[in-house]
Amino acid sequence: MISDAIGAGFKRILDAIVHALARSSINPNAITFIGLLINIGCAFLYGYGKFVAAGLLLIFAALFDMLDGQVARRRRRVTRFGAFFDSVLDRYSDIVVYVGIMVFYASNTAERSMLLVALTGLALVGSVLVSYSRARAESLNIACKVGFLERPERMVLLIIGSLTSVGPVSNPFLYKMPQVLWVLAILSHWTVVHRIYHTWRELRETDRAAVEAALENRKDAPGSEKLVRADYSVQN
Description:
236 residues; mainly alpha; Four Helix Bundle (Hemerythrin (Met), subunit A); 8 helices; globular
């Protein structure tokens, strides 16, 4: 009941912002670019160890991430380039935030940790590949929105890790960024593997039929049988 009320209130606020922006002359692509600049600001804050401030700014960045598409739809300015531009800048936003965290853990401070640098790097790679695997699958006409660590979930985890970086270190409920990085490093790659398996299952019969058709078309060509069989083994 309370969560429904909070969700409804947030939706009204978001709708009001979208309505105001839609009535202005701002280009939806400009909103996307502003979101990237906010994420760059987050990266600088992370690099200087200002995790709480970075987490708060990341919430603001997440808001902008939701606004550009809604404003474009409200103004009937949805374009293929806009979708492409949004996707590319989202990847930049993901990468720059992780780089900021890596800079902090690699710096000469008491929190210096090569393990956390490596975990952040793995989380960065996983973050990019989660999006890339879906894009490649969809380029093959395969719906691939599977897995449970998409961009919104990753941002929520980073915000949680950031906002808990305050207060006494001895508190068991605070300073959870290292645990968040473990989760991101493991589950992002788990999601990639899930998407690879999903795409393989969706394409398996199509690929088999294509190879069998190639075998049928080339079976009469001299010396082609061995080559086609080799192709079939590669496909499977």
